[in-house]
Amino acid sequence: MLYQLIRLLAVPVVKLIYRPEVRGVDRVPAYGPVILAPNHRAAVDTTLLALVSPRRVRFLGKAEYFTGKGLKGRLMAAFLDAVGFVPVERGNAKAGLAALESGRKVLDEGGVFGIYPEGTRSLDGRLHRGHTGVGSLALATGAKVVPVAMTGTEKLLPNGKLFPRFAKVTVEFGEPLDFSRYDGLDASPAIRRAVTDEVMYAIAELSGQEYVDKYHKRPGEAA
């Protein structure tokens, strides 16, 4: 109910003020497990995608955001759950496996899971090599993967800024990718890589970004 209320209030405001152009929304399968795999340019990407998607999207969120004390903490946890965040522990050796398990649970229940294959925001505007988590989830669950291109969000909310600006923003959903031809091969690293690369090439086609076949460094990582 809270999710529906947030959409009811927020979607008209976003459309009225920021007027995002949304294309291909009918390409998102109406039923069954679906992975939305967008490029990642700004912190606002997750919220925007959740608002324009025709189905509720679940994303990963830091578990500590859900454990605040008092009324404020409970309200924050309820809000994050309503807008689609799934709590997952980070900062330990099992974090990657926990993230994939959380995503798999959403998909096994027939839901929609959003994952950024690059693993972090692109700070140079290019599309970087995808991590194979998206391939692992697609192969393990049979979910279709819908590539998504988000353009202009880095101008809507530039890195380091707290409040959105006015900018032309486009969200385009691509044709769903079906990887059922690889049934039974989800344990193969080569197949997981092939699936991930196909997803990344589809995102590149939609976004028009230059593709770089190397992982993007996270802020603070050594070059």
TrEMBL record:
Protein keywords: Acyltransferase, Transferase
Q: Supply one GO molecular-function term.
A: acyltransferase activity
Lineage top rank: taxon: Bacteria
Residues forming the Phospholipid/glycerol acyltransferase domain are 34-153
Which Pfam families does the record cross-reference, listed alphabetically?
Answer: Acyltransferase
Among SUPFAM superfamilies, the record links this protein to:
Glycerol-3-phosphate (1)-acyltransferase
Coiled-coil parts of chain:
none
Q: What is the protein named?
A: Lysophospholipid acyltransferase family protein
Origin species:
Amycolatopsis tucumanensis
